[in-house]
Amino acid sequence: MQKQILIVALDKRSEALRMAAGLTLLDDPVKVALCGEAGADAEEHLEALDFADVPVQQLEPDSDEGMRALAREITTADAVYIV
């Protein structure tokens, strides 16, 4: 049975994107919720996630809409990693 994995890139965004890229080696689907801007140092990780067809949803952490979207993603995931 596949588990839905969600990575929430909150504080250490580049590290969270690197972790998400590594989790693509599993057979479980991975999603990324990016809170705010990724930063210039995360470009390589974003390219790897794009190549692996991992959906990256950029959220605005200070908006109600962004927090509702994050809550929806968290409730549908089987495993959530907040980095």
Task: Please provide a written account of the structure.
With about 80 residues, the protein is of the alpha/beta class. It has one domain (about 5-80): 3-Layer(aba) Sandwich (Rossmann fold). The protein is built from three helices and four strands, in the order E-H-E-H-E-H-E. It has helices at about 15-25, 45-50, 65-75; strands at about 5-10, 30-35, 55-60, 80. A four-stranded parallel β-sheet has the order 3-2-1-4, with helices on both faces. Helix 1 (about 15-25) links the parallel strand 1 (about 5-10) and strand 2. Helix 1 packs parallel to helix 2. The N and C termini lie far apart (about 25 Å). The model has no long low-confidence stretch (mean pLDDT about 95).
Produce the secondary structure layout.
Elements: E1 5-9, H1 13-23, E2 30-35, H2 43-51, E3 56-59, H3 64-76, E4 79-82
Helix pairs in contact: 1-2
- What Rg do the Cα atoms give? 12 Å
Summarize the main sheet.
Answer: 4 strands, parallel
CATH topology-level name: Rossmann fold
Strand runs, count: 4
Give the number of helices.
3
Shape: globular
Helical residue percent?
Answer: 25-40%
Roughly what is the average pLDDT, rounded to an integer? 93
Name the helix and strand elements from N-terminus to C-terminus, one letter apiece.
Answer: EHEHEHE
CATH class: Alpha Beta
Low-confidence stretches are: none
Structure at a glance:
With about 80 residues, this protein is an alpha/beta fold.
Features of the shown structure:
about 80 residues; alpha/beta; Rossmann fold; 3 helices; Electron transfer flavoprotein domain-containing protein
